[in-house]
Design a protein that fits this description.
Blueprint lengths: L5 E5 L5 H10 L5 E5 L11 H19 L3 E4 L2 H14 L5 E2 L5 H7 L4 E6 L1 H5 L1 H8 L6 E6 L3 H11 L3 H14 L11 E4 L8 H8 L4 E3 L2 H14 L11 E5 L3 H11 L7 E2 L4
Parallel strand pairs: 1-2, 1-3, 2-9, 3-4, 5-6, 5-7, 7-8, 9-10
Length: about 270
């Protein structure tokens, strides 16, 4: 058994949706979560920026916290940087996230699936490869959602969801009609870790019977499997959590208090 913490990072608050699932599935593990909000948004920046930030945060987590595993809790960072991270840290377990196209293909009945994601994720070679493995099973309507992640974070900081609701309506409407009849979209993939925090608004817009599929639980299962196979899984004790951010500590603190079973102080970080 290895008692070192698991590192988790995202460009901002969205990775907290992955952290929720990790804490639920691995209650004995310690986690250190980094929100790179000072260098966000990743989804609308070029690959070079995302790779540089991912490399810097990985070095920080390994050097300062001696993590035993890394979870890249960001679809854009996974798509742009995870191959580079694995090359630079051979033998070190790294888990990424990707839009849940395969579970969606298995769940749909109308064979029309909506995919909401950042522009960076949808344009990535990694996503196109994933899409190529399932595009014969269903029709995927891929919608870039510029500004949606930022609107979710704005809602946390201000309590004002006006722009968030408007963007959810804009992007869900652009994909076409939702429903369970032939030609309608009956399954919606939330292809950014921020988007599960907008699912109540999305359900109101597309209908509560539409299946919304996120990635938290599959990531937690994969993380647990890797820990078990490498004999690093903690099976006793109560897991602890540390939070740090390169942006506004108050924003991450408010989100964690709202979305996690956690209260405490957020560390302000400068990671270069």
């Amino acid at each position: 058994m290895n008692t070192h913490p698991i590192g988790v990072f995202d460009s901002g608050l969205g990775g907290l949706s992955i952290l929720q699932a990790l804490q639920a599935g691995l209650p004995c593990e310690d986690f250190i979560y980094i929100a790179d909000s000072g260098h966000a948004p990743y989804g609308e920046r070029d690959d070079a920026h995302v790779i540089a930030r991912s490399r810097a945060i990985t070095r920080y987590l390994r050097g300062h916290h001696d993590i035993k595993m890394l979870v890249v809790a960001c679809n854009t960072a996974t798509a742009a940087a995870i191959d580079t991270l694995r090359q630079e840290h051979p033998g070190f377990p790294i888990v990424g996230v990707e839009p849940a196209l395969k579970p969606a293909a298995a769940a749909t009945h109308t064979r029309r699936i909506g995919v909401m994601a950042t522009r960076g994720t949808l344009a990535s070679a990694r996503f196109q490869t994933l899409l190529g493995t399932v595009d014969q099973q269903a029709e995927f309507i891929c919608q870039p959602c510029d500004g949606l992640a930022e609107a979710i974070e704005h809602t946390v900081s201000t309590g004002d969801a006006t722009n968030l609701i408007a963007l959810c309506a804009l992007y869900s409407g652009a994909m076409g009609q939702f429903g369970h009849e032939t030609g309608q979209i009956d399954t919606l993939v939330l292809g950014c870790t921020h988007y599960p925090f907008a699912q109540d608004h999305l359900c109101t817009l597309v209908g509560s019977s539409i299946q919304l599929i996120a990635t938290g639980e599959p990531v937690a299962r994969q993380t647990k499997r890797l820990l078990q196979t490498s004999a690093m899984l903690r099976t006793s004790g109560s897991g602890q959590l540390k939070l740090g951010t390169t942006g506004q500590a108050g924003l991450l603190q408010a989100a964690a208090a709202q979305w996690l079973p956690w209260q405490g102080d957020v560390e302000s970080l400068s990671i270069a």
